[in-house]
Amino acid sequence: MYHKNSQKRIYLKNAIYFVTTRTYQNHNIFSNSNNCEILMRIMHNASGQMNVDIFGFVIIPNYVHILLQPRRNTISKVMSIIKGRSARIINLINTYSSTTGASASSGAPHLNCERKHSLAGCGGIKHTWHKSFHDHIIRGDNDFRLHIEYLRINPIKHGLVKEGEAYPYLCINKKLVHKLFDK
Fold it and tell me: Alpha-carbon distance 22 to 181, whole Å?
């Protein structure tokens, strides 16, 4: 049985997805560079840990775009893992920082907080992510190239960098992209 607001997903073997997921209530959680670094680390480790190819991603202060191809898990499972891991770590570090005054980069020990999906009672961010995500199945080489380009121009579009400037939270896996087109 589906929840009345649940997304109905199409799962295709070997499909490449362009995913957009927003932060809870569009909070600018990723205007904090430490939070961006956490998410980037999770994304870079995803290939081996989640059996997924990530062709590229861009982190904007209140959302993330990801171009990926799940190998074994469904897109829903991959996104659940990425969002869950990042939320846990971001909440833990921000709670540790706010309760001890330590910097977020100094690391955070395990905190004994009673919680289900948030650290609301511990002084941390109550929620990190919006519950769902939007996905688009890539329909051929041209669509793939358009979405790679969209990742590249997104920080410029939102005034985060100027044309020609590097954006630190944009990653295009050139090796994987070339491998896809060399088939």
Answer: 30
Superfamily of domain 17-181: Transposase IS200-like (3.30.70.1290)
| Vertex 10 angle, CA 15 and 69, to 5° | 25
Q: Do the beta carbons of residue 42 and residue 80 sit within 8 Å?
A: no
Integer Rg of the chain from CA: 17
Degrees, nearest 5: CA angle 58-98-65: 10
| Nearest by Cα to 129 from 159, 85, 99, 160 | 85
Dihedral through CA 135, CA 21, CA 112, CA 104, nearest 10? Answer: 140
Q: Are strands 170-172 and 134-137 parallel, antiparallel or unpaired?
A: unpaired
146 within 8 A of 154, measured Cβ to Cβ: no
How confident is the model over 147-169, as a mean pLDDT?
A: 95
Rounded Cα gap, residues 26 and 130, in angstroms: 8
Q: What is the mean pLDDT of the segment spanning 74-87?
A: 93
User: Where along the chain do its domains lie?
Assistant: 17-181
